[in-house]
Backbone:
């Protein structure tokens, strides 16, 4: 009798290199040799990007397999050994954790995942759930990665989700510049438009599929379906060998981290929010070129900031004026000695711009010169030709604002993994696309 086993792990990487998705790819290879089956795609679950202790992208992994009871121990052993061997254990802040969960995922674990994506949870909460459901957890050092491991298991991605095709470099090339044909990436972008996203920055034409660091990733192609990201991979021309590739099902580009706050009073440090309010004062530019503006509602005020690297958003923020009704989407930075609690904007929706009116004296009907008021209720006179208009009134006209109502998103190159790009609006998946009792062949999501 085959049993379902969910293998969640996190926090194996460091700022200097390594990559948890690569550890997943190595484990997948070994599982394939053991002959165990996958019943869903490998999951790459991005957690709250605003927690203070995140390593880099704050992504946790989950592999969902079917295995014979007598294989369980062997599977657990190979996962544990691989995580231990491949983790950057000597690096400060790398605190790997693994969770093994048998059977169906209970609602409480799903709810835990939701909270790990949208707010801040503790390892204690994770350990409580692990004990309650008789799961197994293995932690290295402090084992903080157990939180992400359990969250990745709980994340079901029943609603909106996307896929990423990740190609890995061979060892000897790591740390050197990535050799990808840029024009092939542009071609892919044109050809698969709307089926893939954030591959090229539309403002600068910069290629976004290749990371910069020493990590083993050659490139990652994000898209709506497995077929689309795979097509993308076929179009991209690489001038260096690909060691292996994996397709992950993920919550990237879905805004899964953002939760609507009812009021400014509800804005809590480290929690990503969507907050609506009225711009309370003119935006100001602070050191570093960042733009700060304050929004208010009945319960209070909160500062919002558009950071300099977020070009588009910074420009929009600069054009806001007092009284504009906006919605700000972003992560909450706690107050410091110099700054109050601040929402770091990822998106700004201008809902209702203030209408700016100007009142001007009428023009003389005889000579066209702007007239002068003769005092309240006395009409206007022309100083040039002497024309008197007793019944003339001031002319009211609307000043055109340099921004229109609508949604503005940070430029793709500075977007969070979780930020839903403008191009994905309208493509959200709402049906449960999970595979039912189906066994996935490895060729669908893994290859050399
Ligand atoms: Zn005149």
Residues:
């Amino acid at each position: 009798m085959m049993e379902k086993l969910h293998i969640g792990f996190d926090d194996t990487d460091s700022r200097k290199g390594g990559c948890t998705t690569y550890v997943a790819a190595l484990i997948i290879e070994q599982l394939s040799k053991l002959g165990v089956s996958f019943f869903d795609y490998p999951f790459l679950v991005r957690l709250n990007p605003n927690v203070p202790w995140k390593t880099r992208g704050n992504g946790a992994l989950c592999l969902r397999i079917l295995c014979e009871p007598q294989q369980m121990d062997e599977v657990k052993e190979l996962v544990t050994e691989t995580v231990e061997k491949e983790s950057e254990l000597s690096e400060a802040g790398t605190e790997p954790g693994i969770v093994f969960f048998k059977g169906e995922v209970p609602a409480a674990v799903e709810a835990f995942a939701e909270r790990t994506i949208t707010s801040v949870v503790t390892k204690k909460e994770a350990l409580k759930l692990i004990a309650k459901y008789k799961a197994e957890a293995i932690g290295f050092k402090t084992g903080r990665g157990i939180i992400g491991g359990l969250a990745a298991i709980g994340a079901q991605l029943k609603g909106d989700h996307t896929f990423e095709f990740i190609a890995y470099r061979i060892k000897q090339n790591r740390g050197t510049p990535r050799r990808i044909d840029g024009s092939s990436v542009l071609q892919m972008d044109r050809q698969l438009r709307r089926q893939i996203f954030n591959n090229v920055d539309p403002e600068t034409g910069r290629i976004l599929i290749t990371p910069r660091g020493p990590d083993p990733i050659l490139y990652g192609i994000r898209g709506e379906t497995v077929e689309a990201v795979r097509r993308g991979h076929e179009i991209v021309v690489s001038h260096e060998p690909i060691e292996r590739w994996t397709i992950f099902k993920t919550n990237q580009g879905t805004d899964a981290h953002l939760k609507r706050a009812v009021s400014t009073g509800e804005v809590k440090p480290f929690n990503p929010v969507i907050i609506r309010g009225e711009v309370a004062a003119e935006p100001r530019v602070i050191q570093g070129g960042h733009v700060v503006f304050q929004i208010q509602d009945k319960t209070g005020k909160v500062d919002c900031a558009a950071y300099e690297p977020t070009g588009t958003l910074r420009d929009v923020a600069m054009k806001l004026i007092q009284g504009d009704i906006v919605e700000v989407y972003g992560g909450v930075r706690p107050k410091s000695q110099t700054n109050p609690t601040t929402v770091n904007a990822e998106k700004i929706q201008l809902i209702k711009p203030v209408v700016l009116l100007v009142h001007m004296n009428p023009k003389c009907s005889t000579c066209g010169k702007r007239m002068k008021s003769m005092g309240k209720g006395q009409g206007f006179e022309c100083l040039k030709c002497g024309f008197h208009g007793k019944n003339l009134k001031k002319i009211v006209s609307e000043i055109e604002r340099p921004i229109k109502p609508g949604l503005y998103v940070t430029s793709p190159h500075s977007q969070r993994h979780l930020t839903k790009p403008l191009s994905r609006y309208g493509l959200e998946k709402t049906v449960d696309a999970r595979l039912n009792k189906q066994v996935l062949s490895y060729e669908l999501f893994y290859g050399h």
The first strand starts at residue 3 and ends at 10.
